[in-house]
Design brief:
The protein is an alpha/beta fold. Residues 557-635 form the AMP-binding enzyme C-terminal domain.
């Protein structure tokens, strides 16, 4: 990669070899296409929509919207009146283009060498069979289906079967508690649950069927009865017999013949063709619950037409997808990243996708790179938290594998600090792979601010520029738009095709969350800095801003300064009460292997924050821990850390926490480092 240094930032230019095969190979072409997407959105997206199958093509008002609640209810309509089917477009259309024998999915199980694959033609056959199973159980257009499964081809099959018959799927991350699953079933009024007998994540057993049983019992107590619970034999667990006293090596599951049905049993007799149910472009495709920390779960609704064209288009350009590329994203299918890049956006491009059930660290921290070599992965996409966690183990687990097939690397989920960015490029990417640092959310459904790898000069840590059709702005606390270099709140001025349409069953909550604070804008809830070159730098959630002695600091800035030290793998900064200053910085750190915490290291870290940002950024407390509390999608739960600093054990809803065992360490070690 070509590197140019300036006093302010490092700029890294795409190499000439990569540009030769790029869809967009120079920044002027990006600017021309972007300009058209803003000035003529109907013409721009109509041309893209022509690549898809429409039973009735878009012909009425292409886009109709209101972003200002002062003018009435918030409303967004893209291509309303057009008729299509998502499943048909990601399977039948691809097969009709001659790609039926292409591998759609390589599946890598939790255990090494537990793998299988499926072609587009065979995937369609399985999807049609399961669609017919759903119909045989009484599922009809508009019904809601809950899916609670590990990352498997069967999970994708269930999602696409819902899309084929016009049902709305709600995928719940396999690992949420029974209470969290029940809350989501009840909130969406789901009529049927699809689950598995159990799963392993690393060495941890997840009793999915038991959790599902408890969730359904909770739903029944509240008067909600399901049509059926369809159970996939993922681990082939036995059924507990009331009159048999045994002690099996594997756990047994309970069985309720009134509601429980084996997946394989009903699939054996199902027809392998199902005519698609034709849907309006504005009909809902899925509901996905955001990983909010407190309160009632928030079901974000995405619709078919706009999501289809935007998910497919972002996948094509952001990853510079070319025919026969192998794509590997580590995201779980229970999150929006998994929905868009592991299912809909990728399949719509005819991609071969790697699905990975396990964790990056099992059976050792080289597992991902082993998969990359085995399957000749070309595009690799993961979260910054995974990168920082892998950095902790050093370079040896990466360099054990060649990774010569890699052409492009990407990140999503949170801002990436420059140190992790360079490690990712130089160690994982052998110094030759561009990095697409993508900003998006559950509500946006696909990347919004992102480099395009063949043309965008990259600044490590910056998401760079808006994607086609996206109009970002920076506003201050009063909602005044700021121009030129600025720091403030990130908002969007107009809709893009895949914008969420509502919060399921609560449109008022949708309006209050995203449109009330800054009238006329969609509010992301994220802070942002725009530099003199127009690059956007996401500074973290606006509510994660740190108020120290009356000055605002961003968590991303402070944490990036700390993680820049060679001994630090991860850092999380929160604000906590101080008897003199009012508030002060309290920083939790995770050390890399081979390093120990000491007074000298503590002084170095404080000095580093002071030198990089200013005296106010020096943490009052540095608290070493073995791990940080994170949501199941890998985001640091700073709300929990703030409670720890106050020795407040009233944690609220922690159902989204990936590993609750870390809490004991956080609270029990606090007294060693805190000042009160």
């Amino acid at each position: 990669m070509a590197i140019a240094d300036s006093e302010e930032e490092t700029i890294i230019y795409p190499n000439e070899e990569y540009k030769r095969d790029a869809h967009i190979s120079n920044i002027e072409e990006y600017r021309r296409m972007y300009k058209r997407s803003i000035e003529d959105p109907e013409g721009f997206w109509t041309d893209i929509a022509k690549d898809f199958y429409w039973k009735c093509a878009p012909k009425n008002e292409f886009l109709k919207y209101n972003f200002d609640i002062s003018n009435g209810p918030i409303s967004i309509k893209w291509m309303e009146g057009a008729v299509t089917n998502m499943c048909y477009n990601v399977l039948d259309r691809i097969i009709d283009n001659g790609l039926g024998d292409r591998i759609a999915y390589h599946w890598e199980g939790n255990e090494p060498n537990n793998r299988k694959q499926i072609t587009y033609s065979n995937l369609r056959r399985e999807v049609c069979k399961f669609a017919n199973v759903l119909k045989s159980k009484g599922v009809k257009k508009g019904d809601r289906i809950a899916i609670y499964m590990p990352v498997t081809i069967e999970l994708v099959t269930a999602m696409l079967a819902c899309a084929r018959v016009g049902a709305i799927h709600s995928v719940v991350f396999a690992g949420f508690s029974a209470e969290a699953l029940a809350d989501r079933i009840l909130d969406a009024n789901c009529v049927l649950l699809v689950t598995s007998d159990g799963a392993y994540r690393g060495t941890k057993f997840i009793p999915l069927k038991d959790i599902s049983d408890a969730a359904l019992a909770a739903c029944k107590q509240k008067g909600h009865q399901m049509l059926a619970c369809i159970v996939n034999r993922h681990l082939n667990l036995g059924v507990e017999e009331a009159d048999v006293n045994n002690n099996p090596k594997q756990p047994l599951i309970k069985w309720n013949p009134e509601v429980d049905i084996w997946w394989d049993k009903v699939m054996k007799t199902a027809s392998d063709y199902c005519e698609p149910t034709w849907m309006d472009a504005e009909d809902p495709l899925f509901i996905l619950y955001t990983s909010g920390s407190t309160g009632k779960p928030k079901g974000v609704v995405h619709t078919i037409g706009g999501y289809m064209i935007y998910a497919a288009t972002t996948f094509k350009y952001v990853f510079n997808y070319t025919d026969e590329d192998v794509f590997f994203c580590t995201a779980d299918l229970g999150w929006i990243t998994g929905h868009t890049v592991n299912v809909y956006g990728s399949l719509a491009n005819g991609t071969t996708i790697v699905l990975f059930e396990g964790t990056p660290f099992y059976p050792n921290p080289g597992r991902l790179w082993e998969i990359v070599d085995d399957l000749n992965v070309n595009i690799f996409y993961t979260a910054p938290t995974a990168i920082r966690s892998l950095m902790k183990f050093g370079d040896e687990y990466v360099k054990k594998y060649k990774r010569t097939s890699l052409k492009l690397l990407g990140t999503a989920g949170e801002p990436i600090n420059p140190e992790a960015w360079f490690w990712y490029m130089n160690v994982v990417g052998n110094g030759k792979c561009p990095i697409v640092d993508t900003f998006w959310q559950t509500e946006t459904a696909a990347p919004m601010i992102t480099p395009l790898p063949g043309c965008t000069p990259m600044k490590p840590g910056s998401a760079t520029f808006p994607f086609f059709g996206v109009v970002p702005a920076v506003v201050n606390n009063e909602g005044k738009e700021l121009h030129g270099p600025a720091v403030g709140h990130l908002v969007f001025k107009r809709p893009w095709p895949s914008i969420a349409r509502t919060v399921d069953g609560n449109h008022e909550r949708f309006e209050m969350t995203y449109f009330h604070k800054f009238r006329g804008y969609f509010c992301t809830g994220d802070g942002v800095r725009r530099d003199k070159d127009g690059y956007y730098w996401i500074t973290g959630r606006s509510d994660d801003m740190l108020n120290v002695s009356g000055h605002l600091l961003s968590t991303a800035e402070v944490e990036s300064a700390i993680v820049g030290h060679k001994a630090i793998a991860e850092a999380a900064a929160v604000s906590t009460p101080h008897p003199i200053k009012g508030e002060c910085l309290y920083c939790f750190i995770v050390l890399k292997n081979g390093f120990e915490f000491s007074k000298e290291l503590e002084r170095d870290l404080k000095k580093r924050a002071r030198d990089k940002i200013g005296a106010l950024a020096a943490p009052e407390v540095i608290h070493p821990v073995s791990g940080l509390p994170k949501t199941r999608s890998g985001k640091i739960m700073r709300r929990i850390l703030a409670k720890v600093t106050r020795d407040d054990c009233e944690l609220g809803d922690i159902s989204s926490m990936a590993d609750e065992s870390i809490l004991d360490e956080l609270f029990s070690t606090r007294h060693k480092y805190a000042f009160n």
